[in-house]
Specification:
188 residues, alpha/beta, Rossmann fold, 6-stranded mixed β-sheet, 20% strand, elongated
């Protein structure tokens, strides 16, 4: 009986009609994209973004000249030039502005400048990061007291980053009094 049963299964499989093979689709030739002619060096290169250069030395010189005319400054007094703050609506190279201020003041007899090295050591001692921009006048005055300065020059660039204004204030460390203030457009 088992033989009959098994032979019936074989017959059933053979009786089922075989499905026709699926039609073979014709092979499409590969699509080729024509090569673009190679650009020669210097052609079709997008221009680099325009970097605006600000003339910090020319921008700070008139303000420094005004400040040096302030009455009551004791010749040879120690001055802390605080980092120029960036309060504009974009990125500004404030380190170059600070360097221009220090350069404009370094050969003047009215002030002896706190060196960048002295400032870095003082900031580290007080637990401030080396690039701390002090942000507040009271913090700048406190740092000036620590390094033994009699004056602090507090500077701020503000407005539109494409045409900022530089504001400067000379403060007496002992009292925190602003003894001179000036502002001017930053030149390109």
């Amino acid at each position: 009986m088992l033989a009959l049963f098994l032979s019936g299964c074989i017959l059933k499989e053979q009786e089922q009609p075989q499905q026709p093979p699926a039609p073979v689709e014709p092979v499409q030739p590969p699509v080729t994209v024509p090569e673009q002619p190679k650009a020669e060096p210097g052609q079709n290169v997008p221009p680099p973004p325009k970097i605006q250069t600000l003339n910090w030395p020319a921008s700070v010189s008139p303000l420094v000249a005004q400040m040096l005319k302030t009455d009551g400054i004791t010749a040879g007094s120690v001055l802390l030039v605080d980092n120029v703050k960036n309060s504009t609506n974009g990125s500004l190279q404030s380190a170059k502005a600070t360097a221009a201020l220090q350069s404009a003041l370094k050969d003047k007899t009215q002030f002896t400048l706190v060196t960048p090295q002295q400032l870095a050591v003082a900031k580290q001692t007080l637990g401030l990061s080396a690039d701390d921009s002090l942000v507040s006048r009271s913090k700048a005055v406190g740092l000036a007291r620590y390094v033994g300065a009699q004056y602090v020059l507090y500077s701020n660039a503000e407005g539109d980053v494409k045409s900022p204004t530089l504001q400067m204030q000379l403060m007496l460390v002992q009292t925190g009094e602003i003894i001179w203030s000036g502002s001017g457009a930053v030149l390109h």
